[in-house]
């Protein structure tokens, strides 16, 4: 009788793939060493290596020389330079925008009372949650009375501004730079230990009468795909609204 079972290395790869899918291993987790996996599965090292290499090729694992093998995630297809609402834009897709509030408190910033809102923004796709950014927003309490009472895990900031306060975000001025990633930020965004720098944005968002309605600081995950549209007009290349479009991907 012909043996129709898949090769042993494929069976082991499927076991690890299922463990990742079920959450036994999360993004950023380190897998057991090759020797430990050999003991667990009772196979030779070459078999384990073939299984691991296959999962690396799929984008589920990433190997760091001298450090080990870590769970990664498929690259997010979210466009960094995209003026619009992430929550609204994903409504018609199989993906879902998620927000986890890490801090929500009223503070004094300058001479003004502001709501400081710190959130982890993620996208859920195919049963996988992909961290996108760590956002800190400052919202003026005097301009937006009662803003501190809203649940920003269920509500989009910009939707609340439009529907509850008649403040329509129309323009963001944003400054971008690479910044050394601290351990706390890397842990929250589930970055690999080897990650050194992440893209950081600071800026302000204005409504249709040019009143500042939000100040923000955003650190982007290394999984975000940075895309800038270029307009080839009259024989030269011109960036299209780069500073304006970046910030609004996160609502």
UniProtKB/TrEMBL annotation:
Gene3D superfamilies: Chorismate lyase-like, Winged helix-like DNA-binding domain superfamily/Winged helix DNA-binding domain. SMART domains: HTH_GNTR, UTRA. It comes from the Bacteria. SUPFAM superfamilies: Chorismate lyase-like (SSF64288), Winged helix' DNA-binding domain (SSF46785). One of its GO terms (biological process) is negative regulation of DNA-templated transcription. Keywords: DNA-binding, Transcription, Transcription regulation. Residues 6-74 form the HTH gntR-type domain. The keyword Cell membrane does not apply. InterPro entries: Bact_HTH_transcr_reg, Chorismate_lyase_/UTRA_dom_sf, Tscrpt_reg_HTH_GntR, UTRA, WH-like_DNA-bd_sf, WH_DNA-bd_sf. GO terms for molecular function: DNA binding; DNA-binding transcription factor activity. CDD domains: WHTH_GntR. The keyword DNA-binding applies. This is Transcriptional regulator, GntR family. It comes from Mobiluncus holmesii ATCC 35242.
């Amino acid at each position: 009788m012909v043996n129709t079972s898949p090769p042993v290395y494929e069976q082991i790869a499927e076991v690890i793939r299922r463990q990742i899918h079920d959450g036994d291993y999360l993004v950023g987790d380190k897998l057991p060493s090759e020797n430990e996996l050999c003991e667990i599965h009772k196979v030779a090292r070459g078999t384990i290596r073939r299984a691991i290499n296959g999962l690396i090729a799929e984008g589920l694992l990433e190997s760091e020389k001298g450090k080990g093998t870590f769970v990664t995630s498929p690259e997010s297809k979210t466009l960094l330079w995209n003026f619009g609402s992430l929550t609204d834009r994903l409504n018609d897709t199989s993906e879902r925008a998620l927000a986890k509030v890490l801090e929500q408190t009223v503070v004094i910033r300058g001479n003004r009372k502001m709501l400081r809102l710190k959130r982890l923004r993620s996208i859920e796709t195919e049963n996988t949650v992909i961290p996108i950014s760590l956002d800190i927003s400052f919202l003026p309490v005097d301009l937006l009375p009662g803003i501190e009472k809203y649940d920003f895990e269920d509500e989009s900031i910009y939707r609340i501004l439009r529907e509850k306060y008649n403040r329509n975000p129309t323009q963001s001025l944003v400054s971008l730079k690479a910044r050394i990633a601290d351990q706390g930020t890397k842990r929250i965004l589930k970055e690999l230990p080897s990650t050194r720098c992440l893209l950081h944005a600071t800026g302000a968002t204005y409504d249709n009468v040019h009143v500042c309605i939000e100040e923000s600081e955003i650190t982007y995950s290394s999984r975000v795909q940075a895309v800038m549209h270029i307009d080839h007009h009259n024989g030269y290349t011109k960036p299209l609204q780069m500073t304006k479009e970046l910030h609004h991907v996160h609502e």
